[in-house]
Write a structure and sequence with these properties.
With 364 residues, this protein is of the alpha+beta class. Helices cover 60% and strands 18% of the residues.
């Protein structure tokens, strides 16, 4: 048991050190990028706030790479110090050295999904809101609930709140839609009801619409006008709408089932969210596979291992498995694979490959 704790502690130390190094690197790169995007229009403190909010998402994304490098660092160090040789000389298999790191990896993976995922969802959403606020002076928000779809778009002419009973999968065609236009000072100035609204270049095109002016002193109904087609200027694009609700990482894993149900009730396709939820649940297993892959390549005595080649092989294998995982995710989102299969087959296959490498290394 003492040996397990020793290897686990060493692995945790390497993992923490590498994570801190990557955190500093990502923060500096993002800081330069944000300063270039905002220019002199935003204060340095506000830029740092956006960078700090973006950091958890960046670290969460590169977690598999950190696991690979931590595992490589551990077993290269153990090989150079001959601690693996001593472990085998005492009659214990080299697999004993893997128990501690694998346990630590499983715990980190579980905490990352249970606690890190909601944190990343909250911080990334706040960072997107602040970035849009600093860029446009307003915000565009999308909300989906039992009452349908709600959108808010901002611009120099004020805010516009949009409600639709249902929509097409990418939210560019709205049905049974209402527009509520507000002046820059905040007062409601116009209401529009339409059967349909589709997003065109720079405007919503409303079909069979009726508009009521809500200016003080006017009778709204007496001054109402009907239009077979009416264009309402918009700062929204299909990509911006997709970014507002299309990033599954912006939804905490604990709320994903409810969100998927709301999407389906509103008429959206929830397949990519279902795939993302399953991939998040499979993340701990994938991280364990990354550690075992790195161990299977680098867990050799220093005199028998070509360290540079082993490290490069481990990193390339890790990138290859990560690519396969992303490819399966795309196939799942496109409907070519069942979401459960798309999420769980790559981690399971990676784990079997890693076990094969470890056993081949151990038994020769």
């Amino acid at each position: 048991m003492i040996l397990h704790f020793y290897f686990a502690r060493r692995f945790l130390w390497y993992f923490s050190a590498i994570l801190i190094v990557f955190a500093i690197f990502l923060a500096l790169v993002d800081l330069v990028e944000q300063l270039r995007n905002f220019g002199n229009e935003v204060g340095f403190g506000q830029v740092v706030q956006v960078v700090a909010l973006n950091l958890p998402e960046g670290l969460y994304t590169i977690l598999p790479l950190v696991m690979i490098l931590a595992s490589v660092s551990l077993f290269v160090a153990l090989g150079r110090s001959s601690e693996l040789v001593v472990t085998r000389a005492t009659g214990r298999s080299g697999l004993v050295a893997l128990a501690g790191p694998v346990a630590v990896t499983a715990i980190i993976g579980g905490l990352a999904v249970a606690m890190g995922n909601p944190i990343v969802a909250a911080t990334s959403k706040r960072a997107a809101d602040l970035s849009e606020l600093y860029d446009n002076g307003g915000s565009s928000v999308l909300s989906i609930g039992t009452e349908g779809l709600w959108l808010r778009q901002g611009g120099e002419q004020g805010q516009t709140v949009i409600r639709a009973a249902r929509t097409n999968p990418d939210a560019t065609l709205l049905y049974d839609v209402s527009f509520f236009a507000y002046a820059p000072q905040g007062g409601l100035v116009r209401r529009i009801e339409a059967e349909e609204a589709h997003l065109d270049s720079g405007a919503w095109v409303l079909t069979r619409a009726k508009a009521w002016p809500l200016t003080a002193g006017l009778n709204p109904e007496a001054n109402a006008a009907t239009h077979e087609e009416l264009r309402v200027p918009s700062t929204l694009t299909q990509d911006s709408i997709r970014d507002r609700f299309g990033k599954p990482s912006a939804i905490p894993v604990w709320d994903m089932s409810t969100f998927i149900q709301g999407l389906e009730e509103a008429g959206f396709s929830a397949r990519r969210y279902a795939v993302w939820m399953q991939m998040e649940l499979a993340r701990p297993l994938f991280l364990v596979a990354m550690v075992l892959v790195a161990a299977g390549v680098t867990m050799k005595p220093a005199r028998l291992a070509r360290t540079g080649v082993s490290v490069l092989t481990a990193v390339l294998l890790g990138f290859g498995l990560y690519y396969v995982r992303n490819f399966a995710q795309i196939m799942g989102e496109n409907g070519q694979l069942n979401p459960v299969l798309a999420a769980w087959i790559p981690p399971v296959a990676s784990l079997l490959l890693a076990l094969g490498l470890v056993l081949q290394m151990e038994d020769g």
